[in-house]
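Schema walk-through. Below, the input block comes first and the output block second. Nothing else is stored per chain. Lengths vary across the set, and this one has 222 residues.
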Amino acid sequence: MSGYIKRQDPETYETLRAHGLKLGKYMAILPLDPKLGKMLIMGSFFRCFDPILTIVAGLSVRDLFLLPQEKKDQASIAKSRFSSKDYIDHMALVRAYEGWKEVEREGSAYDYCWRNFLSAQTLQAIHSLRNQFIHILKDAQLRETKSGINNRLIHNQSLVRAIIYSGLFPGIASVLHRETSMSFRTLDYGQLLLYAISIKEIAMLVVAKFNTMVRLQGLKLP
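--- output ---
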């Protein structure tokens, strides 16, 4: 990955070299699970801070997406609308939060949450954690004062996904192809069962996309 950064963003590459990426030192200042702390710091270094910030905050609180027993189908459809074309739960979380921020300025946040089966309390918690993490990273000089610099590469979806995977590793899955079906396997826990509220209708496509990216990067999964 360092070679990619050197070609695409020499300034970030030199910053990484200067710091020596003392990841453990930086992670220690964050009140987070180490994996999430790593993800947040990497998002800052690789200039795609905002979406990673939202994901880390969202993974630190209870689930944003509600699944009432009597309206499971409607809730699943509502969540799928946030998955866009990538079908990744983490990016669905980002889009749900960004949509909430837009309608909050218009005074229609309650209706937005009601229509989309979103927890207003969780959205508020995500917003609060985002601000807290921003202040911590600013104090540690891990975030530029100008938002545009921190988010220069947020439209590089491959980079954003790579940072998500790097932060969650080894809690990621590989796909096992069979003649009539597919199954999923993780490094630590073996065979994987999908959680009911995940975007399971297209989960196989998500893992297939990830495996393609892994192969392109020359990585291997067991």
